[in-house]
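REQUEST FORM: STRUCTURE PREDICTION
Request ID: SP-0412
Submitted by: Lab K.M.
Chain count: 1
Length (residues): 139
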Amino acid sequence: MTTAPSPMLPVQAAVYTRLTADSALSGLITGVYDYVPEDVVFPYVTVGEAIETPDNTVGALGRETVITLHVWTRARGHAKGLTIAARVTALLDHQPLTIAGSAHIATRYEFAQTLIDPEPPGDVRHVVLRYRVVTEQLP
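STATUS: Completed
RESULT:
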């Protein structure tokens, strides 16, 4: 076997495509971003950090890509951010993804964490979401 190409970028693209194609999510946010322009209006979702590790099996080269998404709001409290996070999780957790160059095995929700941005004026709410995407190299 040769080394499998990294599915990290195709996983990010598949997640972005899934999120931006959903009208229910689009009704809750102003957009999904990898890079956030300065003039973007809250609430929105950003595609954040990722970690990739090998997950080979007998006869197949695999990867686990752990991708972090961020929900940003300027709402009072976390209800708005958690509503958005719930929709994102419904779209990704145990749902099939089309990933260029790889067979999708599974996507699993790992955790959510609520945070408050401490910088003045302290009105930004942040929900961190993490998902594990398991893939195998196509033959």
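NOTES: The chain has one domain: 8-128.
Reviewed by: T.R.
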